[in-house]
Amino acid sequence: xxxxxRPKSDAPDVSDRVSRIREGVTAAILEHRLLPGIKLGEDExxxxxxxxxxxxxxxxxxxxxxxxxxxxxxxxxxxxxPTPADAREVFEARxxxxxxxxxxxxxxxxxxxxxxxxxxxxxxREAELRGDARASVRLSGEFHRxxxxxxxxxxxxxxxKELIARSSLIILLYRRHDTPACGTDHHAEIVTAIRxxxxxxxxxxxxxxxxxxxxxxxxxxxxxxxxRLADVLGA
Amino acid sequence: xxxxxRPKSDAPDVSDRVSRIREGVTAAILEHRLLPGIKLGEDExxxxxxxxxxxxxxxxxxxxxxxxxxxxxxxxxxxxxPTPADAREVFEARxxxxxxxxxxxxxxxxxxxxxxxxxxxxxxREAELRGDARASVRLSGEFHRxxxxxxxxxxxxxxxKELIARSSLIILLYRRHDTPACGTDHHAEIVTAIRxxxxxxxxxxxxxxxxxxxxxxxxxxxxxxxxRLADVLGA
DNA sequence: TGGGCGTAGATTGTATAAAGTTTCGCCTGT
DNA sequence: ACAGGCGAAACTTTATACAATCTACGCCCA
Lengths: 235, 235
Known about the structure:
The structure is a homodimer. By secondary structure, chain A is mainly α. Chain A has helices spanning about 1-5, 15-30, 40-50, 55-65, 85-105, 110-130, 135-150, 155-175, 185-195, 200-215, 225-235; strands at about 40, 70, 75-80. In chain A, α5 runs antiparallel to α10 (about 200-215). The termini of chain A are far apart.
């Protein structure tokens, strides 16, 4: 009902050509096919999607507002390169918001939602088993978005979408590879807590999940000039 | 330094013509000169600011992303009309985020910041004294933004900007006028707590301030069909 | 040989024109 | 008199053309 009278800009509207471009580029960034610093030329993208620069520009501006693309005046659009400081801010915000979101999710629990969550867990496990890293990283982010959708809180959902997208770039840039493969499946534990309507457990599981993700990051401060240079030079 | 290499899209860039339009329209909405539902024609705005529709369109799209403007396909842009449900979400989010923001603000306290806050309180009182309702409502929102800037947390700042803008529309639409004029100056108490570096007091003051604002609202649920109709019809 | 300057090419920023959709008024028919 | 439909006007959407800016390469000179 409200969807017709007020088509929120966030609505998919798959028929909308701008949205197709935006979602295509977003997926490419979230799946780590487009790496931070890469130039997103307007003509280039326009040719791929068969659209004029006008539409590409609109899509890129939206992505810039979501924080996964930087637009530099007279130079063009680039995939964002979050700094360690950005990373800390993003995860602090997630630690604040996501426990509240799962809290709401517990209120919204229903057989249909549990079904949907379980199905998602299956997809995640399948991607993991077949070693599909790209699908894996995408699904991992989508789990958090799914919980936010379940909460029914559209503002938190909007904020979280932004945070998840940025997190994907942060993990790509700063994840340490020397960490032990974590045996426990946090997402499954969160679903279990939601299903049991155990508010406190759900919040706690979510929080520790986020802490573990952040613990796997190596957020090197700009101590070494090497880093400073690489950062300033951009690409 | 980072400002040059990555000119965040949020940066004022007062020389930027799109920003001038965006800030002009934002100010008009926040000061309640443009009321919810009003049509924002591209030609109309373009003529006022001496800009082509291309630039106006960019500005309006940014405002749509901030949630204070709705863009309806093939119909144009309108000042947003938040529903009671939207209002509850906005204030819940503010109750979650703003106490954390003042917490950070306490960490950042310095003579310069205290000076700035005090000066703002003075401006607020002056506007109140001379009965300038428009300046009053604008400054009231800017106080919260100022605290968020003080916190140094750019993500929270971005989120809060959006929440404040929407709050302004919500207050305009749903404020009850039969409430007693609150004698206490909450903003001043918050500044005092920040100056004393009293974290807990600052959080508590901010929370009770938000609760009081929300308590002054009459968030009528769509019980009466009259309201439902008016909402669906839009303008 | 190394650095500075200038011009050519490419890319973005802005404006304008063409295309499509909605809205509103008017007219006709009942 | 009123409902329904046709048509023109206004507006948004999209594409394209033009202007401004930046980048890169090559040339010249010290």
